[in-house]
Design a protein that fits this description.
The chain has helices at about 5-25, 30-40, 90-100, and strands at about 45-55, 60-70, 75-80, 105-110, 120-125. With about 130 residues, the chain is an alpha+beta fold.
C-alpha cells in the first residue's frame, strides 16, 4: 500500500503543478527553475536555490563539487529536469546529492511531460547511506 505524501510534499507538488499548468512542457530547465522559485515563495515554502554540494576526497574538501537545484525547508531536495524521459542516472544523481547533503528525500521533476504527474519521481535515501559529519 502506498503511503500518503507529507503535507510539505503536497504543498511542493501544488506549487510545481501550478508552474507546469501555466507554462506547459518544452521550455528550458532554467525557465522552470525561475518560475518554481517564484511559486514556492508565493506558497510561503522556505527553500534555497542552487545549493552547493560538497565532497571530500582523501582529505581534500571540494566545497562546491555539484549544485542541487532546490533544498526545501532543509528536508527535501528538488531536482528539475526538462528532458525526453528520466533515466536511472537521474535517480543516481539525486541519491548522491541526498547522501552528501544528509537529506532523507528527493523529488525529481521532469517538466517535459504533457502531464506533470508522469514526470515526478520520489527518491528516498536508504537510512544507512547518510555521510557521517
Amino acid at each position: 500500500m502506498l503511503s500518503r505524501p507529507s503535507a510539505l510534499v503536497e504543498r511542493i507538488l501544488g506549487a510545481v503543478i501550478d508552474v507546469h499548468r501555466a507554462l506547459g512542457s518544452g521550455l528550458l530547465e532554467s525557465a522552470y527553475e525561475e518560475c518554481t522559485a517564484h511559486e514556492l515563495a508565493a506558497h510561503r515554502i522556505e527553500f534555497r536555490r542552487q545549493v552547493a554540494v560538497p565532497i571530500k576526497y582523501k582529505g581534500l574538501l571540494i566545497p562546491c563539487a555539484f549544485r542541487a537545484d532546490f533544498v526545501v525547508e532543509n528536508e527535501i531536495l528538488l531536482e528539475l529536469k526538462s528532458i525526453e524521459r528520466l533515466q536511472p542516472i537521474h535517480q543516481a544523481q539525486v541519491l548522491t546529492y541526498l547522501r552528501l547533503l544528509n537529506l532523507p528525500q528527493g523529488i525529481i521533476l521532469n517538466f517535459n511531460c504533457p502531464c506533470l504527474k508522469d514526470g515526478i519521481k520520489n527518491v528516498l535515501l536508504p537510512t544507512s547511506s547518510a555521510v557521517p559529519p
